[in-house]
Amino acid sequence: MQRFLDPAVLAGISGLDLVAKTVVDGFVAGLHRSPDFGFSQEFAEYRAYSPGDDLRHVDWNVFARTERAYLKRYRGETNTLLTVLLDASSSMNYSSHKVSKMDYARYVAASLFYLTTQTQRDAAGLIVFDDEVRTYIRASTRQGQLYRLLSGLENAEARARTNYAKPLLHFQNFLRKRGMVVVISDFFESPETIVRTIEPLRYHGNEVVLFHVLDPQELKPELDEPVLLIDMETQESLEVTPEYGREEYRTKVQSHITQLKDRTRAAGMDYHLLVTSSPLDGALREYLTLRQRRR
Amino acid sequence: MGFLAPWFLASAAAVGLPIYLHLLRRHRTTPLPFSSLMFFERRTQSSIKHRRKKNISELKGRGVVLLLLALAFANPFIERSAASMSGEKLDLLVIDDSFSMRAGTHLADAKRDALAFLETRKPSERAQIMALGSQVHVLTEPTQDSGVLRSAVNSIQPGDTRASFGELAGTLRSMTETVHTPIELHLFSDMQRSAMPASFAEMALPANVSLVPHPQARGPEPNWTVESVSAPGEVFDPKKSRVQAVISGYHTPAAKKTVSLVVNGKAIATQTVDVPAEGRASVEFSSLDVPYGLTRCEVRIDSADSLPADDASLFAVKRSDPRKVLFVYESNDTRSPLYFRAALTSAAESAFNLETATVDRVANVQPAGHDFVVLSDVASLPASFENALTNYVKAGGSVFIAAGTSAARHPRIPIFGDTIADSRYYSREGARFLTVGEMDPSYPSVQKANRWTGVKFYFAVRVAGTDARVAARLTDQTPLLLEKKIGEGRALLFASGLDNFTNDFPLHPVFIPFIDQTARYLSGMETRAGSRIVDSFLELRTAKEQSVGVEVIDPDGKRPLSLREATAAQSFQLTRAGFYQLRLANGRQDLVGVNADRRESDLDEIPKDILALWTGNAGNAAQEASSGTVAQDQKKPYSLWWYAVLLLLLVAIAESLLSSQYLTMSREEP
Q1: Residues in chain A closer than 8 A to B666 (CB atoms)
Q2: DSSP code for B9
Q3: Which of A224, A269, B116, B647 is 20 to 30 A off residue B219, Cα-Cα?
Q4: CA distance B319 to B591
């Protein structure tokens, strides 16, 4: 099942729902071999019934034996609200192989939505943004939420430039409950700006995790000859020698990643680098780790 | 525009090489979309794009260098008229100071007009003053200084030379070989027709010269003149000397004119002559009674016309006693003295006084005191006379010996010394007579009449082994005329008689110039000319008279020759009308009357159509047609080679600087 987490394999599957199911099933199958992580339907404790509690959660077997009403509680019952902020700027369309960063971000988001809504029964929402908010799907556990979210992902097309301020402001306006916020982007912005923009989410008690999606070529560009690079967002052009791509650029990118990682963690947020050539389980594992921590 | 070496243009194809190197082999940079350029620094942008821009600049520079190189080798040229090669205009003021400008106030008017033109001239324009006569005199260099120009105009004085528009055009053609500026020629002249050269082509002006005529004459003016005077240069017998003069009128009505012969300022004879309308009349004065020595004479008319300077014709006369000639002949020979005297009298204007003596009476006659002695077919001479004659010749005297039948009876020719080898009677032979076969035309006796056609020689003596100079031979190579130097004198042998028995030479007209030239040669008398025309040259010395000082005093009483010229000059040009006093290298004093060229007296102007043709208004085509060479000179190829090379140098320097800058930047890049 592990091979179904390979993005190159997922690219051959049409339909995000199927992709998400494939990923999550593969991921869950893999988890059984791991003792470190629990699962949401796992029994946690009994609690005495108090008026107002939902009768659906009363353990009637215990009531039959003891004539006392107890509520059976599971670990996953601590409902989590997941909101995914998906960067749909033009730079996300970049790809050096079969899977673009946008595709990879969709897979990740879809997998998270599937895992959240179908397995965890958590509420999930989606904001697709570039320099404007393109799509906003309020977090909910309603029937058909998954398909709305997947439809939002399907319709998300990369265009325009990235602007973190507007969608986050929008998000703050609509966010009433605390939850988890996953920002999926390539974060081509200065770490200070990114953190400064996203940091307010953390103040509302949200768990914030940054999924930094990068193409392998963006990390280690391989240039055989001088090339004329065109910025996919600004359309500016710049000529680059292979020597620069081999040496200085890599240093700068690594420095950027390190700074972003340090600053996000310093701000109480989590950071995870996702390379589009690597399997998607890293993102799911990160998500579950965070959810575990929230409990 | 053309190319002197157009084949070199093919090398311009070499420009394809840098194009190939720069463009076709250039590294192609395909645009590659990339997510973000935020990790690429601005300074690295210079790597390819700017380099390509510089490469394009270099490509252009190198292409231009190659094109200019090919262009320079192809040697481009453009045909430019000489006039357009320089923008500066030169006002050339030529004022005619020839003899005809003395008429009326022509010269004063010309100078006034020239000064007026100088006043209206722009101060920035350059001008030059020249005077036109038989030659062109440059009075100033091209200058803007009005003071210099005005003083040059004012300094022009009336001359006596004859104007020549051909000389003017020739001077301008020479001038424009070095001066390429446009020249505006202002000609202040009476535009005399006689100043035109024989061929109009000689008047053609260069292309960069534009003629602006300023005619001074106001229509044809009547003028009488003494056209020519025929007078002897030397007078031996005043009663036998005659003076003939021709009086001419130009644009004149028929009129009576009084002609005077003036000697030393005094009219000695006056005649009245009817001169027809625009015609000429001759007048003759039968005697010329002048004192001994050199006398200033002139023939003058009372014309009262606008050009009084040509109303007199000057000539100088020298009064001398006749030269004495001793003629010795056999008593039975009556014909030879008759023929000789007749010839000498008619030819030499009574210059010689012939004394005759027969052989038997000559014993007591002294040859000294005679200019030369004639021995006409004498068989023998008295010993005393022969000795005296020999000494006379050796002392520098001359003798003319005619060897006829009498002389042939003796084996030796007296005085001459050569033996007689043979005497030929051609009339007794089949040929009957002989004629002259060869003649030395440089010999003075036959210099002016060296064609003795039809002269028959029936008898001649042949001298043997002679070392004498032979001036003429008969057709059988028998020497006919021989000269031998004896001591300081000379002896001339005529190998036949002076009668009409041994030949018919005395009956032919050519006998007279022969006797005349022989007498003048032997007596040392030269033909003297009493008058000359302005611009002619006077011979001051012969080849034997080098380093001997001469003296010339012009009509103003000045000595025009410097000391150096006085000792070295071979000739002297007579530039003024009047009497010139001379002391020649042979010590002889002389006086020459100099008159202006009488063609100057005809004040008729150039027809307007010809003048229009000359000024170029009638079109340069006619001018070019009349002078093909001048037309070719008007267009000159102006090579652009230097400009191409200069531009090539500049572009090469710029390209080198650009390249070095590019290399410097490349080194600085990380």
Answers
A1: none
A2: G
A3: B116
A4: 12
Using an 8 Å CB-CB cutoff, list chain B residues near A92.
35
In contact, A46 and A59? CB cutoff 8 Å: yes
Is a pLDDT exceeding 60 seen at residue B562?
A: yes
What is the band of B526 on the pLDDT scale with cuts at 50, 70, 90?
low
Mean local confidence (pLDDT), A246-265: 88
Q: Which helix (H) or strand (E) holds B18?
A: helix B16-19
The pLDDT of A109-135, averaged and rounded, is: 81
Q: Does the beta-carbon distance from B36 to A232 stay under 8 Å?
A: yes
Find the largest Cα–Cα distance for chain B.
Answer: 153
Structure tokens at B493: 């042998």
- Rounded to 5 degrees, φ, ψ at A5 are -90, -5
* SS3 category, A115: helix
Both tokens assigned to B107: 């010269």
Report d(CA A39, CA A120) in Å as an integer. 9
For tokens 């064609």, name the residue: B451
pLDDT interval class at A179 (50, 70, 90): confident
Q: Which residues of B touch A259 (CB under 8 A)?
A: none
Contacts of B67 (CB under 8 A, 6+ apart): B12, B15
Please list the residues that pair with B55 across neighbouring strands.
none
Cα A253 from Cα A281, distance rounded (Å)? 24
A275: distance to nearest CA of chain B, Å? 14
Tokens of B87: 């923008």
- Residue whose entry in the numeric block shows the structure tokens 């192809």: B74
Give the residue from chain A lying closest to B37, CA to CA: A231
Contact flag A238-B29 (C-beta cutoff 8 Å): no
Chain B CB contacts of A253 below 8 Å? 39
Is residue B241 within 8 Å of residue B293, measured between CB atoms? no
- Give DSSP secondary structure letters for A227-283: EEEEETTT--EEEE-HHHHHTHHHHHHHHHHHHHHHHHHHTT-EEEEEETTS-THHH
Q: What is the pLDDT of residues B398-421, one digit of tens each?
A: 999 999 888 888 888 888 888 888
| Alpha-carbon distances, residue B61 vs B128, B545, B662, B663 (angstroms) | 49, 76, 14, 16
When mean pLDDT is compared across A287-291, B185-189, B390-394, the lowest value belongs to A287-291
- Tell me how far apart the alpha carbons of residues B556 and B4 are, in angstroms, rounded to a whole number: 60
C-alpha A258/C-alpha B250 separation (Å) is 124
Residue at token pair 């644009």: B251
Q: Look at B246-260, B471-485, B540-554 and tell me which has the smallest mean pLDDT.
A: B540-554
Contact B44 A241 (CB under 8 A): yes
- B366: which residues sit within 8 A by CB, 6+ positions away? B388
By the CB < 8 Å criterion, does A103 face chain B? no
Question: What is the number of residues in chain B?
Answer: 670
Q: CA B50, CA B60: separation in Å to the nearest integer?
A: 15
The predicted-structure confidence for B134-182, as pLDDT tens digits, reads as follows: 889 999 999 988 899 999 999 999 999 999 999 999 999 888 888 778 8
Amino acid at A124: A
Q: Do B35 and A188 touch (CB under 8 A)?
A: yes
Give the span between the Cα atoms of A27 and A107, in whole angstroms. 13
By Cβ distance, the residue of B36, B38, B45 closest to A239 is: B45
Q: Nearest CA to A122 among A178, A76, A172, A72?
A: A76
Chain A residue numbers with beta carbons less than 8 Å from the beta carbon of B26 are: none
CA proximity to B206, closest of B353, B345, B28, B83: B83
Q: State yes or no: ipTM above 0.85.
A: no
Phi, psi of B264 (to 5 degrees): 50, 40
Nearest to A104 by CA among B33, B37, B35: B35
Which tokens is A258 given? Answer: 């390190």
- State the best of B26, B39, B41, B46 to mutate against chain A, taking most chain A CBs within 10 Å: B39
Q: Name the CA radius of gyration of chain A, rounded.
A: 21
